[in-house]
Each structure stands twice: as structure tokens, then as C-alpha cells.
Write a structure and sequence with these properties.
Length: about 140
């Protein structure tokens, strides 16, 4: 006896739903890892011991390193908690994840003169997280 698969309510295939669900899980993992890395960036910027951040060029957005350290430390903690919430399936974490990933894009854009390569990688990760959390939104609302 063969059964035909029932289409998803939005007309999307079940495979798309599963893939989007996997994307949300991956976004949760990425947010957790990004939170840890951002915390480490903040600690390094605050310690000012062995690591030296050299600003590249004359950039209009100038903050002192301690200010950047606190920004990264606080943002990293909140992103880490949100990533863990995403992995647990919390609905609030999906909304917070989109907001925090957007904020991370802005913060890492301003951080580009200090760490250009990592800033671009962090922006790319945050853009993927935004996309993954906004994909197939209707399945979580029902």
C-alpha cells in the first residue's frame, strides 16, 4: 500500500520544511559559537595585555578599545543565550535571534578597521542566521 505525501499548507514541499528546520538548528549552533567568539573578542579587547589591535586607516567610527570590549562582551553573552534558546526551540529566541543578528552585522561593520577578515566572516554568519530564522516562518506560527 503506497501513500502519497500530503503537501505542506503553504504549498511548499516537506523537504523544504525539513531543510528550513535544519537551517534554524544550524542558525542556533552558529549563534552559540558566534556568541562565544564575541565574548572572547570582548575579553581580549578589555585585557589589553598580549594582544594588540591595530586600527587600519583613518576610520570615521572611532571608539576606544575598552568601549569595544564591553560592547562585544555584552553582545556575546546575549547572543550565546539566544543561540541556546534557539537550540531548545524557544519562540522568543527566534525573534531575538533576528534582532541580535542584525545588531551583530552593524557592530561587526564598525569593527572592520580592527579585524577586517573576522568582521566580514561574522557579518556573513549573521546574514545567514537572519535568513535561516526568517525562512519558513509560517510553520512556527501555527
Amino acid at each position: 500500500m503506497t501513500t502519497t505525501p500530503t503537501p505542506a499548507p503553504s504549498g511548499r514541499s516537506g523537504t523544504h520544511r525539513e531543510w528550513a528546520s535544519g537551517g534554524i538548528t544550524f542558525a542556533g549552533v552558529l549563534m552559540t559559537v558566534m556568541g562565544v567568539f564575541t565574548i572572547l573578542e570582548g575579553i581580549v579587547a578589555l585585557s589589553k595585555d598580549d594582544v594588540f589591535y591595530q586600527r587600519i586607516g583613518d576610520y570615521i567610527f572611532k571608539f576606544n578599545l575598552s568601549g569595544w570590549g564591553w560592547i562585544h562582551l555584552i553582545l556575546g553573552i546575549v547572543v550565546l543565550v539566544t543561540g541556546i534558546g534557539l537550540l531548545k526551540g524557544a519562540v522568543w529566541a527566534r525573534f531575538a535571534g533576528v534582532f541580535l543578528a542584525s545588531l551583530a552585522v552593524i557592530v561587526h561593520f564598525f569593527w572592520l578597521p580592527y579585524q577586517p577578515l573576522w568582521g566580514l566572516v561574522a557579518i556573513a554568519i549573521a546574514v545567514f542566521v537572519i535568513w535561516a530564522l526568517c525562512t519558513d516562518w509560517d510553520t512556527t506560527r501555527t
